UniProtKB/TrEMBL annotation, chain A:
It is found in: Cell membrane. The chain crosses the membrane at residues 6-21, 28-49, 69-90. This is Multisubunit sodium/proton antiporter, MrpC subunit. It comes from the Bacteria. Pfam families: Oxidored_q2. It is a multi-pass membrane protein. It comes from Marinococcus luteus.
From TrEMBL, chain C:
The keyword Membrane applies. It is found in: Cell membrane. The chain crosses the membrane at residues 7-28, 34-55, 76-95, 115-136. It comes from the Bacteria. Belongs to the CPA3 antiporters (TC 2.A.63) subunit B family. Residues 7-131 form the Na+/H+ antiporter MnhB subunit-related protein domain. This is Multisubunit sodium/proton antiporter, MrpB subunit. It comes from Marinococcus luteus. Keywords: Cell membrane, Membrane, Transmembrane, Transmembrane helix. PANTHER family: NA(+)/H(+) ANTIPORTER SUBUNIT B (PTHR33932), NA(+)_H(+) ANTIPORTER SUBUNIT B (PTHR33932:SF4). It is a multi-pass membrane protein. One of its GO terms (cellular component) is plasma membrane. Its main location: membrane. It holds the Pfam family MnhB.
UniProtKB/TrEMBL annotation, chain E:
It comes from the Bacteria. Its main location: membrane. The lineage of its organism: Bacteria, Bacillati, Bacillota, Bacilli, Bacillales. PANTHER family: NA(+)/H(+) ANTIPORTER SUBUNIT F1 (PTHR34702), NA(+)_H(+) ANTIPORTER SUBUNIT F (PTHR34702:SF1). The chain crosses the membrane at residues 6-23, 35-58, 64-83. GO terms for molecular function: sodium:proton antiporter activity. It is found in: Cell membrane. Belongs to the CPA3 antiporters (TC 2.A.63) subunit F family. InterPro entries: MrpF/PhaF-like. This is Multisubunit sodium/proton antiporter, MrpF subunit. Keywords: Antiport, Cell membrane, Ion transport, Membrane, Transmembrane, Transmembrane helix, Transport. It comes from Marinococcus luteus.
From TrEMBL, chain F:
Residues 716-792 form the MrpA C-terminal/MbhE domain. This is Multisubunit sodium/proton antiporter, MrpA subunit. Belongs to the CPA3 antiporters (TC 2.A.63) subunit A family. Residues 68-114 form the NADH-Ubiquinone oxidoreductase (complex I) chain 5 N-terminal domain. GO terms for biological process: proton transmembrane transport; sodium ion transport. InterPro entries: CPA3_Na-H_Antiporter_A (IPR050616), MrpA/MnhA1/PhaAB (IPR005663), MrpA_C/MbhD (IPR025383), MrpA_C/MbhE (IPR046806), ND/Mrp_TM (IPR001750), Proton_antipo_N (IPR001516). Pfam families: MbhD (PF13244), MbhE (PF20501), Proton_antipo_M (PF00361), Proton_antipo_N (PF00662). It comes from the Bacteria. Residues 130-421 form the NADH:quinone oxidoreductase/Mrp antiporter transmembrane domain. Keywords: Antiport, Cell membrane, Hydrogen ion transport, Ion transport, Membrane, Sodium, Sodium transport, Transmembrane, Transmembrane helix, Transport. It is found in: Cell membrane; Membrane.
Length: 113, 127, 140, 495, 95, 801
């Protein structure tokens, strides 16, 4: 399973980065979202996919899975939500103000004023 | 007792899975959006009903807990699935998605004419 | 022509109340079962989003006149406040404590300072999600 | 007592939160920001002196013992940096009063600013690698908000690139943490240090070290990861550009300092060679950039990159002299970059353009500004006895000690070209035929002078008063050379 | 043991149907088709989660099921409104 | 301790701070008068040191500045230092006096001028009176900078700025070399104190760093002293006001290099490289400078090249003097004469060159031009100036009875003497040395004659002069008159200088020899019909011939075409640097974020894969892995499928739908891996995000729907796939190398006991790692406020439509 998960994470990275490498703003934003999914899955995998109960002590199981990475991923998910929403708005503001839907239209800092 | 329930649960699970498959096949094979919507909502809800019921029984027997949340889930699915199906179908119709070729009549054709101007998002519909 | 979303709106009225209760439940139960401030907050925002979807910005605003930016700030105050308290008790920053109290009607209940912290999280999450959605929605 | 250690993070945090409640009262916002920055400086200086006499200070947040909870570690290096941060924040805030514009001030400018400071201080203090990530996100989000703040065309053009690059680097940060956790099973830097030490020269750790180098290099604008920097630092208003140039890359560099001295100190052959080569190339590419452009902002921005190379050269040299040099340089660079950005901001205000070709003879109407720039430029190039010198000297000493003569030579050439690049601004912008008569001046810069003078004086103090700073710098370098003390302070030496 | 095998088979079947539904998301041809497919995926996910609960013998995911039900609905509504009107949240419906 | 000596040294700096105030508040009095006090007081103060340092004495006062870095301000007055201190303050006083008349108080920005000048004076004093190398270096850089400021004093002139930049770049380059050289020395000897280093000189001599350190220090000295080929900055520095030239280029700035060479002689003179480099470059500069001087038409240009040339001469003498250090005692050590000659000439050069510069300044001031093609016949109009010019010029040419003659004789003598030196193969090729010296002297004679006669004799061309020429006011003539008086005085009574100044200075240069007795220097006009005398006569005869011939042809440029090789090299390299760096930058800084990512990812991948396989870190550990269930495999396919849709879709709505599907699948994976909280969060966030995407789509344009240019991009794919592969490989290796147990058991154990929570993940979030969460909600808050201000705050310069 670790192999599959690692490959999956790698695959999500591939897709995310491929999208980021395109010039289209929306695709880039979506790419960043995919990328963070990949990172989260990898973090989960790296913590070890131990068999055990979910870390709820109320279940009174013998073994539990590692709760720490879950907390970390939760933090990371929430952060990437914040970032994604910001970048989304940034993207459309950029489009509205500069008229650029592709990053190659965002070149040149000195054409202002 | 537990054994029997377990078998029932297994059976329910299989049924649910079968419904699920049916709905998926329906979704794949049926000719247009409206018929597909039918397959989706009907079959899937039934599938979910079976499986969740199974789980409900399973835990009732194994952990002696009666979890209201299973029921709540079912209620939710049953309340929302038709509304969702309705909304999409209406949206599809208003967005001008064509009916299957064999459809005999389009009951809402007049209202569709009136709604032309809402269809600016054509590009969303595949090329 | 206008669409009437009677079906949607009726269902929403019913459902959103249920979800909200569920969200509050999940929030309070977060220390023992899956849930907590984040999920509770997000679910509450989901309710609000549903309301916005079914009705419209103005209607919802009239029904719930909340400044979500302020809500975010208040949430932060809650979260930071539990930490600042530690200065007065000379325990490390953000130390949380809990105890079991007996209440007349409810019986034995656990009360923790983390609840205040989590409430902060809850408020911030709602505030954030709704500020974002509202500002985008309002943008012409 | 140890709770004091949270204050460098908490003070700006609370300041920012409180500022959220009255966004439209500009005067109140200003006063509040100013007062809290003053408090922040006081707190930091107190901590600094306290640490110097009592040794490394730790704060186990929430009262959870060290490897399990999050621990803040205040060693000299960290607190020196937070202090410098506070010292730079104050003048920049003051500078903002007159330059940033009331509109921006009404839209949470000071709150973002304070959150940025909070995140930066947190990144300096934290002793937990994941918490470092979170602190990074705080400062990044604040920087995203600031870089696009106001939403002018140029700003938006660059902010998107900036944000997306940092999003990618954050993703890499997360997977770096993931790998590290897989191999070592912990997040606490002190315990990481121990465990990596026990593991010996495990090759996978080297790979992870390099991944972290890339992640921090991206934040720190190391070659070849600096591409995002020039655009994004040159577009926002001066005050924002100043705080970015002063602090943001430094956080990345600090993280390299920290991780490479505390955690990845076992197998240095590969990592530090890479670091050495990269630092040299970074210097070169930075000066090339600084020379290539005729836009004052861009010239300065590329100088930010040069400094990155200089400082990392100290890390790559791996001896205590080099570390002393790197820390001196790092601290001074924070101050001088802020100063130069503010000066350039005032210059642009006065000249109405950022192009060198459009300005000249500023000395005629703005002699004080001229001399401030001149001194700052010399300090930047490391001309004694100004503030840049002790750092540069010790870097050379350390580099020579380590036998990296070629890089020392590169560094000297780079310094010369740095001087060339800024002196050109002086010659064309400040000297030369005045382009504008007094009546044509584009705006008064009187209100902008106090922070500039303060920062330049601070920079000069860092040169003349190098002796006063030395004990702090030395003990900071000590923790880098010998991370044992750090580990023991955190883990209590018993685990 | 055989029970477990049955559960796993059921789970596998449901996953296969998800995969099939995903094909509909991919294929379209119209946007509402995709949305319907997504809605179905949501519902199938509920089934799958319930099966996981059984397989893993844990009650931990009941909330997940409930949430899936809620969110699938919200998602569907949002998509439907978007397709129909181009705008998800109206500013003021009465004006 | 901070003593009066320290105070004296930095006094000019303190005065420099006062100057702007004086200028501002007492505008009626020429600021120069106030400034004049400083060098006069200092001069008399340093005179008081004469008795103390006579012989081998010295005074040392330590002020601890940055002791931790080994930087102490040690003021050290010995013969050499005092000589310079007196020159600096003495000539300084005269220059200030001169400038009071030269610079108009209404037209000039005197505050700037005197601030720079005082800065410079202080720097020179500090430089020559410091025992600590770093402090010396500090002052060294300040001289470069203040001379930069002085040269660019008339800042509106393009040429001033050009000259200033040139001198700054060249001298600072030398300065940096010097710094590294000092550091190298200190890394061997462990101290920055010159005293200490001299004591450890044996240690240094054996070190492999000896040669690099020496070369670096020489580079510093040569650039400062305008030695070939670094002399190019000096002629351009003539753009400075003439008092500045008189000061910097006669007595101070350029002599700093000489000072350094003299200072370092005891340390490095044991090396053959030192001998040949110093002597060789000195002579090369001497001849190059004198040849170049002839080509000049600008009076100051002539003086500039003459300075270059004379400096070369002094340096060559110092180089030759290195031979003396190969002997243990003064007896039978004929080479000490070279050192004596060097010091003597140093003083002489300061006197006559100072007066000549001032004379040129007067001419410039009174006639409005310095071009010798327009000048001529001023003798009758400006008799006093003419006298000054004659004395100064003849002294420079080496004619009796002036001091220049004496030192020139000694120069010849030492050059002849050095050919007898038995080492370094001087006996074979050394014969070149006197020949070069002699040839150069001929040209020196020629340009001196040009200077004097082309200006003052011949026909007066009034129509070519911008202003009507007349003699300068007395105040302006005073300083040069004092200097020429010195020229004459020293010429007649050279031996007054010997015990007071020359011998103590020699003792500093040759400290070990000085221990063995007196140098016994005796300078006199007539020492029989020696070789030197014939050399001088030859110089005069041939020089006169050439001068007259040149006079007749008047086309010296035909014989000596203007050679601007090194200037062009400098200009071209700066231009080239500018252009190529611009080209390089615009080539790779395309402004396109995709390109940047390509660079970044390529770099990342190369580095990571290299280290992964290079160090043998790659392992796969199949042992401890969790088995795969069929539905897990299929679920993975779902994930792959939905991301593939994302990758190739052309419709943004399709993209968002599949993004939603992807997110839901990820949530399901969280369920699979027993993370209920994660699954819940992921689901809600995914839904809210999808809503957000849909909301934002309203604001994106219609054309945006069909995502343009979606054709498969092979390069992008290869790069992203490699990154993905790397991530996978490292992931496999990392999960295959679990070295330690995770710390998480603690959380499981203590979650209920200590924190009262059963949901460990939640307890970690709000309690164990509550700080993370605190900052995390801060992130959220910033994001929302950021979004708010992005949308609501629209400043001018935004919004296209």
């Amino acid at each position: 399973m670790e192999i599959i998960m690692s490959i999956l994470a790698g695959f999500l990275f591939t897709v995310g980065l491929y999208l980021i490498l395109t010039k289209n703003l929306i695709r880039i934003i979506i790419g960043s979202s995919v990328l963070s999914h990949g990172a989260h899955l990898l973090l989960l995998t790296m913590a070890g996919l131990k068999t055990g109960a979910p870390p709820l002590l109320g279940l009174e199981a013998d073994t539990y899975v590692d709760p720490l990475p879950q907390a970390l991923i939760l933090t990371a998910i929430v952060i990437s939500f914040g970032v994604t929403s910001f970048i989304l708005v940034l993207g459309y503001r950029t489009y509205k103000v500069t008229g650029a839907a592709e990053t190659d239209q965002l070149r040149g800092t000195d054409t202002d004023e | 007792m537990t054994e029997i329930v377990d078998w029932i649960v297994a059976l329910l699970a299989l049924f649910g899975a079968a419904f699920s498959i049916i709905s998926a096949v329906g979704l794949l094979r049926l000719p247009d959006i409206f018929t597909r919507s039918h397959a989706a909502t009907k079959a899937a809800t039934l599938g979910v009903l079976c499986v969740v019921l199974g789980a409900f029984l399973f835990f009732m027997v194994h952990t002696q807990t009666f979890s209201l949340r299973f029921v709540l889930t079912l209620v939710f699915v049953f309340v929302t699935a038709p509304v969702g199906g309705h909304l999409i179908a209406r949206a599809a119709y208003n967005a001008g998605v064509p009916l299957a070729e064999g459809s005999s009549q389009d009951a809402l054709s007049r209202s569709r004419e009136e709604n032309r101007h809402y269809n600016e998002e054509k590009n969303d519909n595949d090329q | 022509m206008k669409y009437n979303d009677i079906i949607l709106q009726t269902v929403t009225k019913f459902i959103s109340f249920l979800i909200f209760l569920f969200a509050v439940y999940i929030f309070f139960n977060g220390h023992q079962e899956p849930g907590g401030g984040f999920i509770g907050g997000l679910m509450t925002s989901a309710v609000l989003v549903l309301l916005l979807l079914a009705f419209d910005m103005e209607t919802v605003r009239r029904a719930l006149p909340i400044d979500y930016k302020l809500m975010t700030a208040i949430g932060l105050v809650f979260a930071v406040g539990t930490g600042v308290g530690s200065f007065f008790f000379s325990v490390p920053f953000l130390s949380q404590t809990f105890g079991y109290f007996h209440f007349p009607v409810l019986g034995e209940l656990e009360l923790t300072t983390t609840l205040a912290f989590d409430l902060g999280v809850y408020l911030v999450v709602i505030g954030t999600a709704m500020t974002i959605i509202q500002t985008i929605g309002e943008d012409k | 007592m140890s709770n004091w250690l949270i204050l460098p993070v908490l003070v700006p945090l609370i300041a920012g939160i409180v500022a959220l409640f009255f966004p439209k009262h500009v005067t109140a916002q200003r006063t509040w920001a100013f007062i809290t920055s003053l408090i922040l400086i006081g707190v930091n200086i107190f901590l600094l002196t306290y640490i110097l006499s009592n040794g490394i200070m730790t704060l186990e947040l929430g009262g959870w013992e060290a490897p399990f909870g999050i621990v803040l570690v205040g060693d000299s290096l960290a607190v020196l940096l937070t202090t410098t941060t506070a010292l730079v924040a104050l003048p920049i805030i003051y500078f903002s009063f007159s330059t940033i514009g009331v509109e921006r001030e009404k839209y949470y400018y000071y709150a973002f600013f304070q959150f940025l400071i909070s995140g930066v201080s947190g990144a300096f203090l934290t002793g937990d690698i994941f918490n470092l990530f979170v602190c990074f996100e705080v400062l990044l989000l604040a920087s995203y908000a600031l870089i696009g703040h106001g939403g002018t065309k140029t700003q938006l053009k660059e902010s998107f690139n900036y944000v997306i690059v940092n999003v990618v680097s954050s993703a890499f940060f997360v997977i770096g943490v993931a790998y590290l956790y897989a191999v070592t099973g912990t997040l606490n830097m002190a315990q990481l240090s121990e465990r990596v030490g026990e593991a010996g020269s495990e090759p996978i750790i080297t790979v992870i070290a390099i991944l972290f180098l890339i992640v921090f290099g991206l934040k720190g604008a190391l070659f070849p990861l600096y591409f995002w920097l020039p655009g994004s630092y040159s577009v926002p208003p001066t005050a924002i550009g100043a705080i970015f140039a002063a602090l943001l890359t430094k956080v990345g560099i600090y993280s390299i300092f920290r991780t490479y001295s505390v955690i990845f100190n076992e197998d240095t052959a590969i990592t530090h060679t890479i670091l050495l080569v990269l630092s040299a190339v970074t210097m070169i590419i930075g000066v090339i950039g600084a020379i290539a452009y005729r836009d004052v902002k861009l010239i300065l921005v590329y100088n930010v990159i040069v400094a990155v190379g200089f400082i990392l050269f100290g890390v790559a040299s791996l001896n205590s002299d080099a570390f002393v040099g790197a820390i001196y340089y790092l601290l001074h660079d924070i101050v001088i970059k802020a100063a130069l950005f503010l000066i350039i901001g005032a210059l642009i205000t006065a000249a109405g353009t950022s192009k060198l070709s459009g300005m000249g003879g500023m000395i005629k109407h703005h002699p004080l500004l001229t001399w401030m720039f001149f001194i700052a430029a010399l300090a930047l190039a490391g001309v004694p006895p100004l503030g840049g010198f002790p750092g540069k000297l010790m870097l050379v000493v350390g580099g020579a000690e380590a036998g990296h003569y070629i890089v020392v030579a590169v560094m000297m050439v780079a310094s010369l070209l740095v001087l060339y690049s800024v002196i050109r601004i002086f010659l064309q912008g400040f000297l030369g035929e005045p382009m504008l008569t007094h009546a044509e001046q584009h705006g008064s810069i009187k209100a902008q002078m106090p922070p500039i003078v303060f920062l330049v004086a601070l920079s000069a103090f860092m040169g003349f008063g190098a002796e006063i700073m030395y004990p702090f710098v030395e003990s900071a370098a000590e923790t880098l050379v010998n991370p044992r003390a750090y580990v023991e302070a955190v883990l209590g030496g018993n685990s | 043991m055989i029970l477990n095998a049955i559960y796993i088979t059921a789970a596998t079947l449901v996953t296969i149907s998800i995969l099939a539904t995903l094909y509909r998301v991919f294929k379209g041809p119209s946007m509402p088709d995709r949305v319907i497919a997504l809605d179905v995926i949501g519902i199938q996910l509920i089934s799958l989660t319930a099966l996981f609960c059984i397989i893993l013998n844990t009650r931990a995911f009941i909330e997940v099921m409930l949430l899936l039900a809620i969110l699938a609905f919200i998602g569907t509504v949002a998509f439907a409104k978007y397709i129909e009107k181009g705008v998800v949240i109206e500013h003021d419906r009465d004006s | 301790m901070f003593t009066i000596l320290h105070l004296a040294i930095i006094a000019p700096f303190l005065a420099a701070v006062l100057v702007p105030l004086l200028y501002k508040f007492i505008p009626r009095i020429h600021t120069g008068w106030f400034v004049l006090i400083v060098p006069i007081i200092l001069f008399s103060y340093f005179l008081s040191y004469l008795p103390e340092v006579s012989g081998t004495g010295s005074v040392m006062k330590t002020f601890e500045w940055i002791p931790s870095l080994g930087i102490n301000y040690i003021a050290y007055v010995d013969g050499l230092g005092l000589l310079f201190a007196l020159l600096i303050t003495g000539i300084g006083a005269l220059v200030v006096l001169y400038s009071i008349y030269y610079l108009d108080k209404h037209k000039e920005q005197l505050n700037n001028f005197y601030t720079y000048l005082l800065l410079f004076m202080g720097a020179m004093l500090g430089l020559t009176l410091s025992d600590n190398l770093i402090v010396l270096y500090t002052f060294w850089e300040i001289t470069s900078i203040s001379s930069f400021l002085l040269i660019s004093y008339w800042y509106t002139k393009e040429k001033s700025r050009y000259g200033a930049l040139k001198s700054l770049l060249i001298t600072v380059m030398g300065g940096f070399a010097l710094l590294v050289g000092f550091v190298l020395i200190a890394s061997v000897t462990g101290t920055y104190s010159i005293r200490g280093i001299l004591e450890a000189s044996d240690q240094l001599a054996d070190s492999p760093l000896f040669l690099p350190a020496m070369l670096l220090i020489l580079l510093g000295a040569f650039t400062k002293s305008a030695q070939f080929p670094f002399h190019i900055w000096l002629p351009d520095a003539m753009e400075a006001p003439t008092p500045v030239s008189a000061y910097l280029h006669s007595a101070t700035m350029v002599k700093a290099g000489i000072y350094l060479v003299a200072r370092m002689t005891p340390l490095f003179a044991v090396s053959a490289y030192w001998f040949w480099l110093v002597t060789g470059f000195g002579l090369l500069t001497l001849i190059w400078g004198s040849l170049s001087a002839i080509r000049q038409t600008d009076l100051k240009g002539i003086l500039a090249y003459s300075t270059v040339s004379q400096l070369g001469m002094i340096l060559s003498m110092l180089g030759a003097g290195a031979a003396a250090l190969h002997y243990d005692s003064i007896d039978n050590n004929a080479y000490t004469i070279a050192v004596a000659a060097a010091i003597f000439h140093l003083i002489n050069h300061a006197t006559y060159k100072g007066s000549l510069f001032m004379m040129v300044g007067i001419i410039d001031h009174e006639t409005g031009t310095r071009d010798i093609r327009r000048l001529g016949g001023l003798m009758t109009l400006m008799p006093i100036s003419f006298t000054i010019a004659v004395i100064g010029g003849f002294s420079m040419a080496g004619l009796p009875p002036f001091n220049g003659f004496l030192s020139k004789e000694m120069f010849f003598m030492s050059m002849v003497e050095i050919t007898h030196f038995p080492q370094y193969s001087v006996d074979s090729i050394g014969i070149l040395l006197p020949i070069v010296a002699w040839t150069a002297s001929i040209f020196t004679f020629v340009y001196c004659m040009m200077l004097v006669f082309r200006t003052f004799t011949g026909k007066l061309q009034k129509e070519k002069l911008p202003t009507k020429p007349h003699e300068a006011p007395f105040g302006m003539l005073l300083s040069p008159l004092i200097l020429v008086a010195l020229v004459v005085f020293i010429g007649f009574f050279p031996n007054t200088l010997v015990p007071t100044i020359i011998e103590p200075a020699m003792a500093s240069i040759m400290p070990e020899l000085a221990q063995t007795g007196s140098f016994g220097v005796d300078i006199y006009f007539w020492h029989g019909f020696s070789l030197e005398l014939f050399m001088t006569i030859g110089v005069v005869l041939l020089g006169t011939a050439i001068f007259l011939a040149l006079q007749k042809w008047n086309k010296m440029h035909v014989i000596f075409p203007e050679n601007r090789l090194f200037n062009q090299a400098y200009n071209r390299s700066l231009e080239g640097l500018d252009r190529s760096s611009h080209a390089l930058m615009s080539w790779h800084m395309t402004g396109l974020v995709r390109d940047y990512f390509i660079y970044i990812f390529s770099f990342t991948v190369v580095l990571l894969l290299f280290s992964l396989f290079g160090t043998g870190a790659f392992t796969i550990d199949v042992e401890n892995m969790v088995p795969v269930s069929p539905y897990e495999a299929i679920l993975s396919l779902v994930l792959v499928g939905s991301s593939l849709i994302l990758m190739f879709t052309r419709s943004r709505l399709k993209a968002v739908i599949s993004l939603g599907a992807l997110g839901y699948t990820v949530a399901l994976f969280f369920v699979l891996f027993r993370a209920p909280d994660l699954a819940l969060t992921q689901l809600t966030i995914e839904t809210v995000s999808v809503t957000l995407f849909l909301l934002c789509f309203y604001h994106f344009p219609q054309i945006f729907d069909a995502l343009k240019e979606t054709k498969f991009h092979a390069v992008n794919f290869v790069i992203s796939a490699t990154v993905g592969l790397t991530v996978t490989l490292i992931g496999l290796s990392a999960s295959g190398t679990r070295l330690f147990p995770a710390i998480s058991d603690y959380f499981l154990e203590n979650s209920y006991k200590e924190a009262g929570g059963n949901n460990v993940v939640n307890v970690i979030l709000v309690d164990f790692r509550g700080f993370d969460t605190l900052l995390e909600i801060l992130v959220l808050a910033i994001a929302s406020l950021g979004v708010y201000s992005l949308i609501k705050l629209r400043l001018a310069g935004g919004e296209n439509k």
